[in-house]
Design brief:
By secondary structure, the protein is an alpha+beta fold. 37% of the residues lie in helices and 12% in strands. It has helices spanning 2-16, 83-88, 92-114, 141-154, 166-170, and strands spanning 36-46, 62-71. A two-stranded antiparallel sheet has the order 1-2.
Amino acid sequence: DHQWRHEQEMAAASVVSAQTPRLINLVAPGETDSDTVEFVRHTAASAAAGETAEDSASPESTITYESVTTAVREPSVFVPITRIAMADAGQLRSIVEEDLKADVLDRVDTQLASGNGSGQNLTGIYSASGIGTRARGGDSPSDALHKAITTIRLAFLEPDAIGMDPRDWEQ
């Protein structure tokens, strides 16, 4: 009976620890020793490549970038727990650390999606200017998604992820 219960607990633990898809996995990681970071943002492009005859001038494309500087944000959290409590339960430290890590990653994902950029908030995808949007209108979820991908591709870009609230897909 004890062995069976232990196996059930381990099975439940493995289900809970399944990898959650996260926006942060789509962002290139980096380190800094500064309180600000600078990066380059692609703002516009015109595709002008074309065939040319020998000794003819090549078509000229225009690609525009801007330099962006932003403050480093540091999401944090803690749990008040004594050293004695941590020492008494061998697994407790690992469990607490994983729970806190998940809490921070959930917050970062929320900020990457919908942070409003004020105070210590990041500017999330939904709040960032220059990111194309497309109204769903009367389209089915699959048609709206296909049309959004087409809009991105017509801008000479390639989508690398699709984020969607599962409730929107159910409609």
